[in-house]
Amino acid sequence: MRRLRTCLGAAAFGLATLGTTALVAGHASGAAGALNNRWYAAAPYLMPLDNDPPDPAAIMDATGLKAFQLAFILAPDGGGCSPTWGGTAPVSSDTAVQSKISTIRAKGGDVSVSIGGYGGTKLGQACPDAAATAAAYQQVITKYGLHAIDFDLEEPEYENTAAIQNEIGAARMLQQNNPGLYVSVTTAGTADGTGWFGKQMLLEAKSQGFTPNNFSIMPFDGGFNGAASQTAALTNFNAILQSTFGWDQATAYAHEGFSGMNGRSDTGEMFTQADFRTVLDYATSHAMDRFTFWALNRDRPCTPVDNDGRTSGTCSSVAQNAWDFAKFSTEFAGATPPASPPTPTPTPTPPGTVCKSAWSSTAVYTAGNEVSYGGHNWKAKWWTQNEVPGAASWGPWEDEGAC
Fold first, then answer.
1. Is residue 193 a contact partner of residue 219, using CB atoms and an 8 Å limit?
2. Active-site amino acid positions
3. Rounded CA gap, 74 and 361, in Å?
4. Which helix (H) or strand (E) holds 123?
């Protein structure tokens, strides 16, 4: 877990700065015309600078997709309250992501930008208050002329009450000061819909009088088993939205979203194209507002198909053709994707190896140490203690395959 940083100087961006001036600057930046909100609701996540970024133009040509959810905006790794890509690339001096956005817009598409995600230091943690947090995000909106933004509020940030107050307050201010801005809020999913921290986040939104276009849950990495468990979680989450905001069922579904994970999840759950079809049918039949997934970087076949039993950031670990999962997003937006070639036959999984000594939560491990956990061998990439192997694909453990 990265150390919490303190924001310096961002409070100088007052609420007045977030108003009409920001909107004019946004249009002056050369932004294309906004898409229908259904496209922003369907935009799959894409890491534009990491995990072997695919060519968005090629995805558009192959699938008919028009919108992308670019991830993630974080606070600087060195501290401060200014927006960066992944904690390392300042938005203020960015040209690489801007080039990708220009390519997408030149083909008639557009982007939303996601802030937060799992791990890293979020601006809501680093900035001193909601106004400073909003000012930092307004820089992103203005820089890229955004029509949509996603608040991905999960661990460890959503366990921090002050940080969530900053994020929800910032989201409310951005919504007010950027008329027509499409705002999604994404958080962890559980079998009951969402957990205690997710419910606290909803209560914070209610207390601030903030209603985004949708609240989306991520029903994976929580003991899920295929589409039936995911649709059950969506049904339960609908009941939570009803009870929290006093909405009827239809209104709650109109403010509800699904954010899945294609293929093998971080914890070894498997979600195939058939699972996505079932959830897509549920989402459309209940008039849900959003259907997205993590991530386009993973919407490619692995070699071998199951990637030796590991969760990859660059392929799905299920039998597929490239961009199979993106086509579900195109359908949700109301467009017809091109026909897919037949799904390839899976390659047999190679036999496993002997398991190393079992991982211990109390032991200290250094780079090169090997352990076994969850039927896999793992090698430490750096010093670590009490960090579960496989809990995050970017964590301290490298998966060496089944044993």
1. no
2. 154
3. 29
4. helix 123-126
97 close to 48: Cβ distance less than 8 angstroms: yes
Average pLDDT over residues 182-187: 98
Q: How far apart are CA 203 and CA 212, in angstroms?
A: 13
Which residue type sits at 394? Answer: W
Per 3-state DSSP, the chain is made up of helix, strand and coil in percentages (nearest 5) of 35, 20, 45
Supply 211's token pair. 């209603």
Q: What residues contact 356, with CB distance under 8 A and at least 6 apart?
A: 370, 371, 372, 377, 378, 403
At 280, list the tokens. Answer: 């897509």
pLDDT tens for each residue of 191-235: 999 999 999 999 999 999 999 999 999 999 999 999 999 999 999
Q: Place 343 in a pLDDT band, splitting at 50, 70 and 90.
A: low
Mean pLDDT of 150-171: 96
| Mean pLDDT across 114-119 | 94
Strands 256-261 and 214-218: parallel
- Tokens 């705002």 locate to 183
Task: Find the helix packing angle between 96-106 and 130-144, rounded to 10°.
Answer: 60
Residue 17 carries which side chain, given as an amino acid letter?
T
In one-letter notation, the amino acid at residue 293 is F
Question: What 8-state DSSP symbol labels residue 9?
Answer: S
Of the CA atoms within 13 Å of residue 105, those in its CB half-sphere come to 19
Taking the CA atoms of residue 26, residue 31, residue 33 and residue 35 in that order, the dihedral angle to the nearest 10 degrees is -100
